[in-house]
Write a structure and sequence with these properties.
Distance between the termini: 45 Å
Strand content: 5-15%
Structural class: alpha/beta
Radius of gyration: 26 Å
Number of domains: 2
CATH class of the largest domain: Alpha Beta
Helix content: 40-55%
Low-confidence stretches: 1-24
Bound molecules: 5'-O-[(L-methionyl)-sulphamoyl]adenosine
Number of strands: 17
Number of helices: 19
Length: 544
């Protein structure tokens, strides 16, 4: 990431210009989320990954990078097959229902601006998986062998004895998966294998030569240690069930669900069928939960190396959302549906809260008390009140006409300096995936502006005719800062910032380059806000 980023092409569109979509002049930024299992409905852990990827995508898009955000669903494998069977429907019908009723609506609920949505049951994907696998087979990276070992259907993963723990309760006396606390299954099949062990040294070289390939540091260290212990070849087909992509040269087998799923990142951008799109987008930045970093930072680059394709730009393993100190999950009954929160606070506050309150890369606890407190203090009183006050004073003292600043004092210049400094700091933080740091930098501007208004007391200046120019300067400076804030916050809170922009800005908010936020232009007059940006919440926690 980084490098030169021209933005002129996106900003200079005029009504008279010939109709042509300018190619963004910036860097290519392709970001993908994991694709989610359709065995169950989404909870706030899934929404967290979506929001983080969306905020990064919107930021890059708004600084002129050639951005593409991909998300989707993982629909094959034994876990989905069993869930569907237990509901007496076919796995395809089950997946269709969950995608339509739950997974696509999630994107609306938390305001995701994805450019594509891939399902592993899409024909484009299934054909792409077969194409990829056939190539690896032709090039000698696949062989047939006997597999014997333990499998956890919850993880859809083969387990080593060290991954298992003693069961308790109903599973007393059995070995169970440490993650799912359920017994593993003994598999004994003739399968196809991928020669993953061939890539051990190349992977270690990759981690060494590209230290930011796996992030953050703790996830990277875990991955390096794991590979150093030695890699085995990977069983990549199953023949005891048929809910999957058929192995092209032996249709009795279906492709192992992770091998199938990981390929979504390339089948979605035209692997093998649309070279132009593929070359324009690949390689991706991959955002995943740390639980699945190993699949993305070991198996996936090995697959790509075997196919002669570049590895991802980076794999970032974020932390877990905890509820009451436990990793949130439906099966442990700690699952919270995103809509429970957005119904109370709205999508903007949901996005703001999770990006602000949790250090991106670390685990973080969710609580209703915490989100309510931040909503009230930071959004309603901090940002929302600032916006209402500035607009109301320009309306009252200047009839809504944006005042022109006179001579600037050190206090006014300090506001300008803060705008420029936090813009650079936020942009740098976003390049490091430090999303919460970007927000705390931006919040310095909220605090500085509120402090500035308190100190300058425009309401007192308004009482004296001879202070008219000073009043104009103070309100012009405050409005300038408010507009800069609106631009910087638009990737985080697209709805509230759009409303605010309609009251003060000119042109499209999303065409204002975030890395030059302070250069925004105001409309000649401001429009009063119909209501506060963040209304008062009467009862924060929904009734149980
Ligand atoms: N289908 C696989 C991924 C295949 S990608 C080629 C899968 N799906 S999943 O539905 O289980 O979703 C996993 C992702 O959801 C995690 O990697 C993480 O991004 C997100 N989260 C699920 N629970 C979470 C928390 N409690 N906290 C944070 N993120 C969580 O694994």
């Amino acid at each position: 990431m980084g490098g030169s980023r021209g933005v002129a092409g996106r900003v200079a569109a005029s009504a008279a210009a010939p109709k042509m979509v300018p190619m963004p002049a910036g860097d290519s930024f392709f970001i993908a989320t994991p694709i989610f299992y359709v065995n169950d409905v989404p909870h706030i852990g899934h929404a967290y990954t979506e929001v983080a990827a969306d905020v990064l995508a919107r930021w890059h898009r708004q600084r002129g990078d050639d951005t593409w955000l991909l998300t989707g669903t993982d629909e094959h494998g034994q876990k989905i097959l069993r869930t569907a069977t237990s509901h007496d429907v076919t796995p395809q019908a089950w997946a269709d229902k969950l995608v339509t009723e739950s997974w696509k609506p999630l994107l609306e609920t938390v305001d995701i601006s994805n450019d594509d949505f891939i399902r592993t049951t899409d024909e484009r994907h299934e054909k792409g998986v077969q194409r990829f696998l056939q190539k690896l087979h032709d090039d000698g990276y696949i062989y047939q062998g006997e597999f014997e070992g333990y499998y956890c259907v919850g993880c859809e993963e083969y387990k080593q004895p060290g991954d298992l723990v003693d069961g308790t309760g109903a599973f007393e006396g059995e070995q169970v998966c440490a993650i799912h606390s359920k017994p593993v299954e003994l598999l004994k099949e003739s399968n196809y294998f991928f020669r993953m062990s061939d890539f051990e040294q190349r992977l270690l070289d990759l981690y060494e030569s590209q230290p930011d390939f796996v992030q953050p540091e703790n996830v990277r260290n875990e991955i390096v240690q794991f590979v150093k212990q030695g890699l085995r070849d990977l069983s990549i087909s199953r023949q005891t069930f048929d809910w999957g992509v058929k192995v092209p040269w032996d249709e009795k087998h279906v492709v192992y669900v992770w091998f199938d799923a990981l390929l979504n990142y390339v089948t979605a951008i035209g692997y093998g069928v649309d070279d132009e799109q593929f070359d324009r987008r690949w390689p991706a930045v991959q955002l995943v939960g740390k639980d699945i970093a190993r699949f993305h930072a070991v198996i996936w680059p090995a697959m790509l190396m075997a196919a002669g394709l570049p590895v991802p730009k980076a794999v970032f393993g974020h932390g877990w959302l905890l509820v009451g100190g436990e990793k949130m999950s439906k099966s442990k009954l700690t699952g919270i549906a995103p809509q429970q929160i957005t119904d109370v606070f709205g999508a903007d506050a949901f996005r703001y809260y999770f990006m602000r309150a949790i250090t991106f890369g670390q685990d973080g606890n969710f609580s209703w008390e915490d989100i309510s407190a931040r909503y009230q203090a930071e959004l309603a009183n901090g940002f929302g009140n600032l916006a209402s006050r500035v607009i109301a004073m320009i309306t009252r003292y200047f009839d809504g006409t944006v005042p022109v600043a006179g001579e600037l004092t050190p206090a006014d210049l300090a506001v300008r300096e803060t705008e420029l400094r936090v813009t650079a700091a936020a942009d740098g933080a976003m390049d490091r995936f430090a999303i919460n740091e970007a927000l705390s930098s931006i919040w310095e501007l909220v605090d500085v502006l509120n402090g500035y208004i308190t100190e300058q007391e425009p309401w007192a200046l308004a009482k004296h005719d001879d202070q008219r120019e000073r009043l104009a300067t103070v309100l012009a400076t405050a409005l300038r800062g408010l507009g800069t804030l609106t631009v910087l916050l638009s990737p985080f809170m697209p709805t509230a910032t759009r409303t605010l922009w309609e009251a003060i800005g000119q042109g499209e908010l999303t065409s204002q380059p975030v890395d030059r936020a302070a250069e925004w232009s105001s409309a000649p007059t401001v429009q009063p806000l119909a209501a506060g940006l963040f209304p008062r919440i009467e009862q924060p926690e929904p009734a149980a």
